Amino acid sequence: MTQYPSTRKNAANMWRCDKCGLPIQDGHGTIELIDPETGEHPLGTSCLIIAYHRRCDPQPNRDAYWIRVERARGGEMLDWIEHLLEKPWFSPANAREFIRRYQDGMCTADGFKVYENAPKAGAQ
Ligand SMILES: [Zn+2]
């Protein structure tokens, strides 16, 4: 059997914690989707999507829609986006942000970024 060299892109891609900046191992964190109508965003930004280690979450009992990190990677991301778009509070703009966050935050277990996005429209 041929052994192909592993590359960073083939590594188990991980979400990166919004608090400590480190990769979130399977079983150790969640992605939260904040309802823009009712949710109070813990980072105080316009971002509706946040990823935390369980140990880093300042409000672990906050009422939010959450997904375990190990369930929001690769092909499962598409399943989530399809599912979430059925919800009245999840807009196409939210879907775009979810994808953007996924691409911006994804890293390998040793912390290397997986994707490099083109600059956002309007950014210099
Ligand atoms: Zn963390």
Q: How are the elements arranged and paired?
A:
Layout: E1 29-33, E2 49-53, E3 65-68, H1 75-84, H2 92-105
Antiparallel strand pairs: 1-2, 1-3
The site of zinc ion has 6 residues, from loops.
What does this structure look like?
- The chain has helices at 75-84, 92-105, and strands at 29-33, 49-53, 65-68.
- It has one domain (5-108).
- The protein starts with 28 loop residues before the first strand and ends in a 19-residue tail after the last helix.
- The model is unreliable at 3-11 (pLDDT under 50).
- The chain has 124 residues and is an alpha+beta fold.
- The structure holds zinc ion (ZN).
Poorly predicted segments: 3-11
Number of domains: 1
Question: How many helices?
Answer: 2
Oligomerization: single chain
**Euclidean distance between termini CA atoms:** 48 Å
Bound compounds, each kind once, are: zinc ion
Beta-strand level of the residues, as a percent range? Answer: 5-15%
Characteristic key phrases:
single chain, 124 residues, 19% helix, globular, disordered N terminus
Describe this structure in a few short sentences.
The protein is α+β, with helices and mostly antiparallel strands and 124 residues long. The protein has helices at 75-84, 92-105, and strands spanning 29-33, 49-53, 65-68.
